[in-house]
Amino acid sequence: MDFESNYDIAATAHFILTHNFTRVALQFPDDLLKDSTKVVTVLRKRLQSLRECDITGSGDETEIGLYVMADTAYGSCCVDEVGASHINADCVIHYGHTCFSPTTTLPAFFVFGKSSICAADCVERLSQYALTNSKPIMVLFGLEYAHSIQQIRKVLLESSTSCRSDFKSEFHFADVPSAFMFPSKDIKKLNGLQEAACDCGHKSSSDGASGTVYNIGGLTWKLPEGQSMEDYSLFWIGHDNSAFANIVLTFNACEIVRYDATKNQMVTDLSQQRRILKRRYYLVERAKDANIVGILVGTLGVAGYLHIINQMMELITGAGKKAYTLVMGKPNPAKLANFPECDVFVYVSCAQTALLDSKEYLAPVITPFEATIAFNRGSQWTGAYVMGFGDLINLPQVQVGNQEEARFSFLQGGYVKDFENQENVEEERETLALANATEKALQLRDNCNSLIKVDAKSGAEFFANRSYQGLNMPDENTSPEPFFIGRSGRAAGYEDEKNKH
């Protein structure tokens, strides 16, 4: 496939000129950055040629500035509106893998790329799977294979007609409604479909019949009324990446198989992906026992991120826990280790970067959906999983139950109280003496001289009782100390040592 077709140069130039953008930010992931200079050169030539061919004679000869962005502050799948704002960009052209999260302030045009795929082999694998499956098959795919879906559907139709195959299953294909996106004006409608901009639609997704519309990772499809995703088997075309993990966790009750287009083979063993759910449930149970919670801001561009941060803050404080908001770019174990007082972190980010493998972290990192289950008394995990926080914004306000009742902790193996009677606490503290501070707890002695373990309730309380609080200047002596001239020379022989010999 030629270079201009792979990077959609013609469609990109048409989008820029149609909307009269003059400052355009080109966002590249690390693996495509090597082609950025060539893309700028070819795109600038195409823009110039389209202007010369413009017969309307608008007379607008404003130069269009193209700016390359790399090393995004957060995930490369999201539109980097913060980086684009540094050059006052009018829009962002996003290249490579994308989560298709709604933007906040800037319009965006997405260039998915066009990965190669053998349509005949894909149809053969799909047909073989259909012969052993009685359920309808919903075909989902990575956006890098969106250009081949029409060909796959055509080959599938020809194969079923020529071979007269009697498939037990029906085939349904997801659509890509649009290659561009404008900022969402209403955060209550973050899941609304974008206006279709490419001819990838299927009539089941565009007719007026009532039904349920699903929209995930740039794909959209519609199920007839009375049907659910559990009635379908899923056939994924693409890599084992974050987009596929999003599908597996969201539709964990469905039978899912994956077609690896690079190796031309089917992958049916998804035990590793499904094991993630068990891990996430364990992290939810750990979060229930937390006292201090850190809210990690993992995006500054996805529409509604401020709303979900405030919603998480209200949920955490309503559960009687202390919350701190942290903005640090891409999180890693070294960064989060600077906040040892936090028992758990809530990571607010797009759906495809929300899952962090926190095995190397000192404290678990959970998603806003998991925080809703952990900090809402009486809530239970039914097996349904929500990756994007846009669905949580649309949910009604959660009412926190009676927190004074003791709850059973699976990790501690007994009943614990999240709320303590403040009057009893004050009376008890008058008779207690502070002994020693351990990592995240205070050890107090009562009248019987027995140790009582009380967890720190805030970062200030945790810091005040640490054995080491950093290098502090002594308060009793503020006068400057005299300075001395140190040694000079090398360690093998300082100058003062040479003089002695």
TrEMBL record:
GO terms for biological process: protein histidyl modification to diphthamide. Pathway: Protein modification; peptidyl-diphthamide biosynthesis. Its cofactor is [4Fe-4S] cluster. The keyword Repeat does not apply. GO terms for molecular function: 2-(3-amino-3-carboxypropyl)histidine synthase activity; iron-sulfur cluster binding; metal ion binding. Residues 473-501 are annotated as: Disordered. It comes from the Eukaryota. InterPro entries: DHP2 (IPR010014), DPH1/DPH2 (IPR016435), DPH1/DPH2_1 (IPR042263), DPH1/DPH2_3 (IPR042265). Keywords: Iron, Iron-sulfur, Metal-binding. Belongs to the DPH1/DPH2 family. DPH2 subfamily. Required for the first step of diphthamide biosynthesis, a post-translational modification of histidine which occurs in elongation factor 2. DPH1 and DPH2 transfer a 3-amino-3-carboxypropyl (ACP) group from S-adenosyl-L-methionine (SAM) to a histidine residue, the reaction is assisted by a reduction system comprising DPH3 and a NADH-dependent reductase. Facilitates the reduction of the catalytic iron-sulfur cluster found in the DPH1 subunit. This is 2-(3-amino-3-carboxypropyl)histidine synthase subunit 2. It comes from Cicer arietinum (Chickpea). The gene is LOC101501182.
